[in-house]
């Protein structure tokens, strides 16, 4: 009896719930999918996806359904709960919208989009308003609810890749205050952040452009990937448009479908714009990418009549497994189905890589509130685009109750518990720590970070150079570190070493006090910026063939300080003892010097005015590296306090890079060096030569550098003043397959210089650059496992009589970490 009653209750209960019926809308003649077809059922309206797929919820046992699409006959039919799948084939007809004026031969959708592009300045809040302010609450979840994804190793976000690959779950909440002004641009102050399983947030997640504010910009940036903007100046070149409908509401809108026109050349989205019929502003937008994953982004806007502007109110982004096919770029890399083999990067080779778990699901939602469109109070501390408040990670529960604009559901709580459990029992935190450290050139073991650059090197002078070095990390002390290294060259049979400490006066502003002692060798006539970009390189191409060094013992103290997030400086006081490793002497005031002492002060800076930064309580993280950027240094040597010479050395380097959506790019590096006074050759300048002086062309075969002169022989030229220019233009990659995409690069280099008193330098013969040195080259990179081939040719004033001597053939190497 109880079973009978339970069965009745169950059957009755089933009737109370809607049944989900999947389906697909296609062109009956071509069998191609119809994206964003209008489907009405039970008083509700939905749109098909870009592959024509849809799901309807049937509340009744049966109901009528209406499917309409511009240019096709409307279909009306009946569906019931017996329907398992609904395939809808629509027949094309000639149909036009009366609301749009049509000119002969011109697509009405293109006319509409042209007008919308011209009115961007009136509709984009960042162009139309002098300033605004608003708050936002966002929730970001990664969970294993649907499907099976795999993330490739070429992601620019090490932490995010590790979270997805190893952590299998992630949950964070964020509350921010946003301000914008015409003068200073945009600024986000993170007032609260709560990340499950981590004592400190994975700040890199904040750097991923999770919620782009504007759809009007040239590039639409989402999760570190860039797509062509649907209302950019070049939108009509990159997209096809079709007017699907006119939506009747208090503010009617054109419903415009867009899809990529040059997908293999320029990355694009597919979706719908709802354009206000009066202002042509975006009222709502939906963008999708379908392939190995399904990416959906919904933008919602709210209308403010006083300012006559539509302002973003909400954005919802979902990533889940797709039906297969093309890879989709997200997080700066590619995501594909888990059954495919991953591309191996250096991290994977060193540490191994596990498969992505099944059923991965990503969801992020942001809700904007407290919107003030007449804000004119300026921006505090405008240097960093995102600033994390000191107490952001320590907010009380009451703060979250007050600022949560979205419900914190039982599922969220369950995900949080699961994340805590996974991270506490697993090795995810350790893997994030290790991979971030390797990207910076170290490997953490307990309280010690091993310096990977000190382990192995090779040069013609030292032969094999083996060593060990590193520094203590925060497990040892959060107030300072101890650092040092020791290394031995088996050819020169000399032990080198260094020892120092760095005291953290203020980590937020990058204010550090350094003390060090060092005994090593340095390339003659090299000029190293204290504040140069200290990026980790597995291989330094030029180092292998350098044969002109000087030895030094250096005692130094320096103070580093980040004046602003975009401007970093360091001041050093040092004393050096210099000796020669090969015959050389310098005649100054009638006295011949082979070994000498220097007392120097050095001021160095790096200024990145257009880059974007994330300022956390403990660090300054670069969000987006934009150009140009400038590096400068001035060094003064005094003939006091035991110093033998009085000279000045100045260097200034400007770097610029133009990136394009088709993945081509052009790079410029211009550098000027100037020295005057009692300047020995050890502290003059070379122009980064990278060609061994051997007769046979193939014996000169070596690895090309990024900004070195490949046809210039080592020790051929020296200068006390010089200016150089390097230009590299890379064409968009040749997409032969997903794994084979070589890049063709054209290179041109030029340097001019002079030497005021070359006869003062004894036991060495060299030329000056007063006639100007020029070379051009070509590279085909990433042919196999990061390796490629290149060739260069010198011409102009320093062209050599022996034709072969003007050529250089090179390996190129671009390893992906």
TrEMBL record:
A single GO molecular function term of this UniProt record = carboxypeptidase activity
Question: Could you list the residue ranges forming a coiled coil in this record?
Answer: none
Tell me the domain of life: Bacteria
Keyword Hydrolase appears in the UniProt entry: yes
Q: Name one Pfam family in it.
A: CarbopepD_reg_2
What keywords would UniProt list here? Carboxypeptidase, Hydrolase, Protease
Q: What is this protein called?
A: DUF5686 and carboxypeptidase regulatory-like domain-containing protein
State the species of origin. Answer: Christiangramia lutea
């Amino acid at each position: 009896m109880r079973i009978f009653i339970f069965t009745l209750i169950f059957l009755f209960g089933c009737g109370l719930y809607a049944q989900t019926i999947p389906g697909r809308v296609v062109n009956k003649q071509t069998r191609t999918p119809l994206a964003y077809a209008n489907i009405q059922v039970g008083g509700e309206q939905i749109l098909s996806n870009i592959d024509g797929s849809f799901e309807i919820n049937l509340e009744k046992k049966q109901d009528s359904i209406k499917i309409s699409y511009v240019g096709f006959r409307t279909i009306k039919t009946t569906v019931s709960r017996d329907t398992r799948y609904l395939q809808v084939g629509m027949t094309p007809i000639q149909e036009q919208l009366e609301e749009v004026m049509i000119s002969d031969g011109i697509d009405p959708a293109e006319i509409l989009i042209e007008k919308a592009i011209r009115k961007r300045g009136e509709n984009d809040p960042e162009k139309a308003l002098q300033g605004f302010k608003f708050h936002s609450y966002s929730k970001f979840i990664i969970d294993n609810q649907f499907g099976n994804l795999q993330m490739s190793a070429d992601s620019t976000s090490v932490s995010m890749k590790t979270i997805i690959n190893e952590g299998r779950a992630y949950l964070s909440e964020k509350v921010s205050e946003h301000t914008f002004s015409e003068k200073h641009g945009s600024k986000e102050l993170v007032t609260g952040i709560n990340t499950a399983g981590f004592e400190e947030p994975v700040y890199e997640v904040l750097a991923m452009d999770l919620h782009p504010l504007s759809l009007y910009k040239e590039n639409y940036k989402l999760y570190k990937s860039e797509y062509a903007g649907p209302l950019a100046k070049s939108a009509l070149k990159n997209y096809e448009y079709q007017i699907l409908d006119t939506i009747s509401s208090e503010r009617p809108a054109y419903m415009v479908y867009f899809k990529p026109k040059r997908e293999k050349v320029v990355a694009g989205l597919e979706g719908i714009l709802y354009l206000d019929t009066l202002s042509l502003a975006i009222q709502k937008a939906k963008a999708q990418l379908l392939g190995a994953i399904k990416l959906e982004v919904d933008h919602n806007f709210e209308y403010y009549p006083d300012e006559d502007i539509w302002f973003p109110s909400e954005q919802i982004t979902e990533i889940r497994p797709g039906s297969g096919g093309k890879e989709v770029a997200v997080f700066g890399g590619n995501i594909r189905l888990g059954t495919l083999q991953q591309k191996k990067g250096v991290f994977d080779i060193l540490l191994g890589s596990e498969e992505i778990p099944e059923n991965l699901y990503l969801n992020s939602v942001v809700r904007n509130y407290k919107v003030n469109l007449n804000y004119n109070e300026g921006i505090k501390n405008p240097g960093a685009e995102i600033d994390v408040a000191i107490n952001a990670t320590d907010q009380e529960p009451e703060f979250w109750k007050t600022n949560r604009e979205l419900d914190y559901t039982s599922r969220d709580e369950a995900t949080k518990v699961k994340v805590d459990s996974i991270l506490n029992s697993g090795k995810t935190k350790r893997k994030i720590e290790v991979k971030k450290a390797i990207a910076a050139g170290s490997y953490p073991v307990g309280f010690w970070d091993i310096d990977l650059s000190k382990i192995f090197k090779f040069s013609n002078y030292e032969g094999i150079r083996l060593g060990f070095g590193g520094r203590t990390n925060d497990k040892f002390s959060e107030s300072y570190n101890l650092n040092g290294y020791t290394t031995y060259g088996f050819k020169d049979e000399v032990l080198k070493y260094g020892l120092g400490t760095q005291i953290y006066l203020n980590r937020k502003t990058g204010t550090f006090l350094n003390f060090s002692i060092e005994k090593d060798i340095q390339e003659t006539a090299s000029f190293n910026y204290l504040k140069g970009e200290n990026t980790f390189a597995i291989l330094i191409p030029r180092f292998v063939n350098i044969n002109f060094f000087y030895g030094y013992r250096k005692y130094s103290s320096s103070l580093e300080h980040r004046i602003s997030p975009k401007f970093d400086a360091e001041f050093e006081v040092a004393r050096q003892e210099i000796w020669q490793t090969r015959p050389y002497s310098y005649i100054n005031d009638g006295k011949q010097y082979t070994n000498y002492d220097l007392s120097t002060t050095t001021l160095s800076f790096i200024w990145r005015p257009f880059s974007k930064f994330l300022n956390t309580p403990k660090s300054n993280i670069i969000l987006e590296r934009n150009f140009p950027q400038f590096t400068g240094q001035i060094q003064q040597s005094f003939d006091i306090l035991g110093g033998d010479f009085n000279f000045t050395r100045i260097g200034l380097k400007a770097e610029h890079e133009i990136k394009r959506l088709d993945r081509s790019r052009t790079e410029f590096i211009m550098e000027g060096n100037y020295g005057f006074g009692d300047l020995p050759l050890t502290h003059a300048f070379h122009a980064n030569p990278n060609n061994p002086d051997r007769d046979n062309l193939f014996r000169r075969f070596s690895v090309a550098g990024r900004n070195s002169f490949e046809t210039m022989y080592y020790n051929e030229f020296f200068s006390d003043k010089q200016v150089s220019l390097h230009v590299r233009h890379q064409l968009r990659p040749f997409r032969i397959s997903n794994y084979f995409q070589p890049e063709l690069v054209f290179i041109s280099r030029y340097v001019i210089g002079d030497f005021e008193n070359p006869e003062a330098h004894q036991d060495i013969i060299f030329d000056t650059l007063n006639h100007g040195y020029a070379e051009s080259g070509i590279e085909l990179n990433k042919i196999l496992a990061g390796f490629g081939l290149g060739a260069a040719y010198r011409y102009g004033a320093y062209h050599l009589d022996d034709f072969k001597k003007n050529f250089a053939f090179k390996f190129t190497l671009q390893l992906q970490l």
